């Protein structure tokens, strides 16, 4: 195969970009934050629900409470304590302009742990987000800062580790900093898909192509397409040496030896992380749990530092000749996988046309039904959508069910939804109305606010919405009988809300606030000096509030 001089220049340019990205950052400045060899459960840029994975997930051998150490000299600049997300997290700012983040921790080092505890009791609030000055908690490289855990939005014991630019707060691929993680395995390909790009990738959607292994590469039969303008997407993973399915770091698409698209995952900010939904086949991800990455740029996908802006990946077939296609996939270590195939325009079909309800990327639009309205911003969509919104009668609710397109079209930012109830509500009933949004795979319940005769709420996904009247009380249940002698190390309550969630939990032990941590739906207090052994019969007053604002107070007694 003869490579054109221009192509060689482009490939050299891309390779220079990759090499430069890997050397622009200080090498070997940061150490492994664990005292066991670094093994990856997930890498930077891997596909997650509504976001890129923004760091490395480091394996802790399926154990909790492993020692976590500072990756370099610096100071603790921030900590977070939250139910979901990072759970317990530490941020360390370093003198070289970077900040490292350590998440899903069980416990901070003793001095910091005591400081956070005192702050929680002072604020009478478990969740915290505290910033520190450089002199409060300085740390040295290798110093113990925490114990690993499984807190927050973690599905199993591990350490989430990030490196950020301190000034911009952009997350940078930690593997560009010279961590030595053995990896000799090339990325693997298991699927290829093509899309008719005369209207939108969403309609009619993906056309699957069977991929076959061919020596050290992959191939397919000649791809016969029915549109003169198409794009491709690939289902691929990088397994490295640990067996986990890691995300693809770098991809290139070439047609007839000409580069037409390329992306690399070097850095992403949290403000931009939701653009992942414009980089993948969102419908396949939501419906089929498949990570399929586009090898083209959707018109509303404006993520910076991701792709070469002058290469949009659209394949334009002006004849019915056979054309060569090559897809090149690389990991940070340079291991390279290839898919080589051919494509041919078979017979052009009629393209999908827009309607008066079509919403295009870059344009805002308000869409109405008889009793509902949504307002989409100009940044809402990544690709064109023939938008459909209608109502269905719902005898169990205080409004019709509003069907907003379907859950398989992504929305980039928040939109405002307004719903009118199907009957007149009293002022007391209005105070107990919530919006239930069903995304198909999960649900969300929010309070919303009244604006005239309609309830307003903001959402960033599509599906079905309905107004519910919630007059139920939340509650917690204890694992002991009244007055029982508690011999374990903690108290645990199970929380229950019929609709929505418990949004507020307050416990008072003999009249004083007690620090309960929230773990998913459980509330846990680990015994400390606030409740010593042999201190007689205790009264524990627990007050909970649900999404609708209903309040319940329960009294429990126990001995220790």
Automatic annotation (TrEMBL):
Protein name per UniProt: Murein DD-endopeptidase MepM/ murein hydrolase activator NlpD
One example GO MF annotation: metalloendopeptidase activity
Keyword check for Transcription: no
Alphabetical list of InterPro entries matching this protein: Cell_wall_metabolism_enzyme, Dup_hybrid_motif, M23ase_b-sheet_dom
Annotated keywords: Hydrolase, Signal
Organism lineage string: Bacteria, Pseudomonadati, Bacteroidota, Flavobacteriia, Flavobacteriales
M23ase beta-sheet core domain span: 52-120, 133-167
UniProt keyword Hydrolase present: yes
Domain of life: Bacteria
Signal peptide as annotated in the record: 1-21
């Amino acid at each position: 195969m003869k490579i054109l001089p221009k192509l060689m220049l482009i490939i050299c340019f891309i390779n220079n970009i990759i090499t430069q990205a890997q050397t622009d950052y200080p090498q070997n400045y940061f150490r492994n934050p664990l005292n066991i060899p670094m093994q990856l459960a997930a890498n930077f840029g891997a596909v997650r629900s509504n976001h890129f994975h923004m760091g490395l997930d480091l394996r802790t051998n399926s154990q909790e409470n492993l020692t976590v150490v500072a990756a370099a000299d610096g100071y603790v600049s921030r900590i977070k304590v939250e139910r979901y997300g990072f759970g317990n997290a530490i941020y360390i700012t370093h003198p070289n302009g970077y900040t490292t983040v350590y998440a899903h921790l069980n416990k901070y080092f003793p001095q910091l742990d005591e400081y956070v505890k005192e702050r929680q009791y002072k604020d009478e609030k478990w969740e915290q987000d505290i910033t520190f000055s450089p002199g409060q908690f300085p740390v040295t490289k290798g110093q113990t800062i925490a114990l690993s855990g499984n807190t927050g939005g973690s599905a199993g014991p591990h350490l989430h580790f990030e490196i950020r630019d301190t000034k911009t707060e952009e997350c940078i691929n930690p593997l560009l900093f010279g961590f030595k993680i053995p990896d000799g395995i090339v990325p693997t390909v298991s699927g290829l898909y093509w899309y008719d790009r005369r209207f939108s990738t969403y309609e009619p959607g993906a056309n699957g192509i069977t991929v076959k292994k061919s020596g050290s590469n992959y191939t397919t039969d000649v791809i016969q397409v029915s549109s003169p303008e198409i794009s491709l997407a690939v289902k691929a993973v990088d397994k490295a040496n640990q067996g986990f399915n890691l995300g693809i770091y770098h991809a290139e698409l070439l047609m007839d030896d000409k580069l037409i698209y390329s992306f690399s995952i070097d850095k992403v900010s949290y403000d931009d992380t939701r653009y992942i939904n414009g980089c993948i086949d969102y419908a396949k991800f939501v419906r089929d749990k498949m990570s399929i990455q586009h090898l083209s740029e959707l018109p509303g996908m404006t993520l910076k530092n991701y792709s070469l802006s002058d290469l949009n990946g659209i394949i334009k077939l002006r004849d019915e000749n056979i054309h060569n296609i090559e897809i090149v996939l690389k990991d940070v270590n340079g291991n390279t996988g290839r898919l080589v195939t051919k494509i041919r325009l078979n017979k052009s079909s009629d393209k999908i046309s827009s309607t008066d309800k079509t919403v295009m990327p870059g344009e805002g639009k308000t869409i109405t039904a008889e009793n509902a309205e949504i307002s989409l911003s100009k940044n809402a969509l990544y690709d064109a959508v023939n938008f459909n919104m209608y109502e269905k009668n719902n005898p169990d609710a205080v409004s019709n069910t509003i069907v907003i397109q379907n859950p398989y079209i992504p929305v980039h930012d928040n939109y405002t939804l307004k719903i009118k109830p199907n009957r007149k509500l009293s002022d007391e009933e209005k105070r107990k109305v919530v919006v239930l949004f069903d995304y198909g795979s999960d649900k969300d319940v929010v309070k919303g606010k009244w604006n005239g005769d309609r309830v307003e709420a903001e959402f960033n996904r599509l599906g079905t919405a309905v107004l519910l009247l919630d007059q139920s009380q939340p509650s917690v249940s204890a694992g002991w009988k009244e007055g029982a002698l508690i011999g374990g190390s903690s108290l645990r309550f199970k929380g229950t809300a019929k609709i929505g969630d418990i949004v507020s939990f307050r416990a008072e032990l003999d009249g004083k606030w007690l620090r309960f941590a929230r773990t998913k739906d459980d509330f846990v207090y680990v015994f400390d000096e606030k409740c010593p052994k042999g201190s007689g019969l205790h009264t524990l007053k627990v007050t909970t509030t649900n999404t609708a604002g209903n309040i319940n107070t329960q009294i429990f007694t126990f001995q220790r």
